[in-house]
Write a structure and sequence with these properties.
Layout: E1 16-19, E2 25-28, H1 32-48, H2 55-71, H3 73-84, H4 88-114, E3 117-118, E4 129-136, E5 139-143, H5 151-162, E6 166-170, H6 176-189, E7 195-197, H7 202-208, E8 215-219, H8 222-233, E9 239-242, E10 248-251, H9 257-269, E11 281-284, H10 286-304, H11 320-328, E12 334-337, E13 341-342, E14 347-348, E15 351-354, E16 371-376, H12 380-389, E17 395-399, H13 403-412, E18 417-420, E19 434-435, E20 441-442, E21 444-445, H14 448-453, E22 455-462, H15 468-471, H16 480-490
Parallel strand pairs: 5-6, 5-8, 6-7, 8-9, 10-11, 10-17, 11-16, 15-16, 17-18
Antiparallel strand pairs: 1-2, 3-4, 4-22, 9-20, 12-15, 13-14, 19-21
Length: 502
Amino acid sequence: MNTSNASPSPARWFRVFKRTMSGDSHTRKSSSSSLGEDVLRKSREAFSSGKTRPYAFRVSQLEAIFQMLEEHEMEFVEALEKDMHRPKFETVLSDITTVKNEALYAIRNLEKWMQPKYVQKSMTSFLDDCFVQREPVGVVLIVGGWSFPIQLSLIPLVGAVAAGNCVVLKPSEVSAHAADLLHRLLPTYLDNSCYHLISGGHNELMEVLDHKFDHVYYTGDSTTGRQVTQAATKHLTPVSLVLGGKNPCYVDKSCDLPVAARRIAWARFVNAGQNSLAPEYILCQADVQDALVHELCSCVREFYGSNPHESPHYGRMASAEQYKRVKDLLTCGQVAFGGQTDDGDRYIAPTVLIDVQESDPIMQQEILGPVLPILPVDTLDEAIHFINRKDRPLAVYVYSDNPQVTSEIMCKTSSGSFCSNDSMTQSLCTSLPCGGVGNSGVGIYGGKHSFAAFSHRRACLLRNSAVECVTYLRYPPYTEKQLRLMLWASSLSRRSSWCQIL
């Protein structure tokens, strides 16, 4: 994910939309610094007023997000068709339905999530109420990604709204039509004093990070992610990062190869490969490689016809810069099938590469395009060693009908998520967390995990003033008897019962 192709002009980067009495929105522009301060001031005033804290308010805003997607589904479909030739099926499934599911899941569970969580007590607190209360952190900055621009902006927004925060949202400028649609629609559905949108590229993002937020959530490339973290560190602001990485996919000789090929081909080539959760490379034994290439080629013909360039079901690169970067990677190894490009249309055919070396550029960076390298390994242990030599990825995939093989890879590797005999479908389960580990990201989100990510866990103890018969033991002057009694009262027993002999 790259934002360096954005316009560098910071003078007119910021747009804030406000709902008028008639329901129409308008744009106000000024210098980035003054408007940044103005939006933050308004957001902090709204948060300080307590407006976002009540359960009823949070639910009303979540319902508004759902309603917006319901009422304007075709506009989002058309925007993403213009941005990357995205088929309606892919937009509705990945960008619309996933966000609607997140909003519904939050609405149905929010009351339970907001309840205090009572904790285990010792003798010193057995008459008290001890619990953890989830509180909103304050004003949150969300920086959305470009590959799935609606999902990557609105899923974290759902979590931040559910947690009771004010939000400043920056959709990716790379998917320009989708970003413009969010700028136009969101202010007509959400409370304008609590939720604001900004626009701009990399330079403008770094400028707005000069201001202090209470949490920053960023989806994008690792280089910008490091810069975001460094900028936030100046204010001691916690950061959540979704960065992607090189997701390995091991194909075992015991698997159902036609089924594996169909699932891998769908995951790698959906949205023209622009997905951080897609398999980045395949590891398999040499005697599996030829059959797998044949099956993958058959799947591409089945999915997109003999000429995917003419298929209405196949997308395009989101930007000229992204197109050029992925096209340059086609020089690695040897093209087994595919490899066709069209500069004017930002088209890259579904491509499989063989004879790729570990040192090749395609193995050193996230692809984010419809290109799939295959590397042979001799043994399962060699595959595991290969995976562990690299940074921990966003996902690890294994296709095998042997439970021992699946268990070996799951237990001996580390990644943000793990999936066997399929790819990317773990992200469709709202009760599972999404997120990376190490260089693939920091923090988790999705469902309850999004609510937790944007909440502060406040330790609360409500003490009764009528227990001085116990607490007096802590006061000076001290005696050995007091110490023994206090140790008995405050120490956790190895047994579940408090019955101990003095």
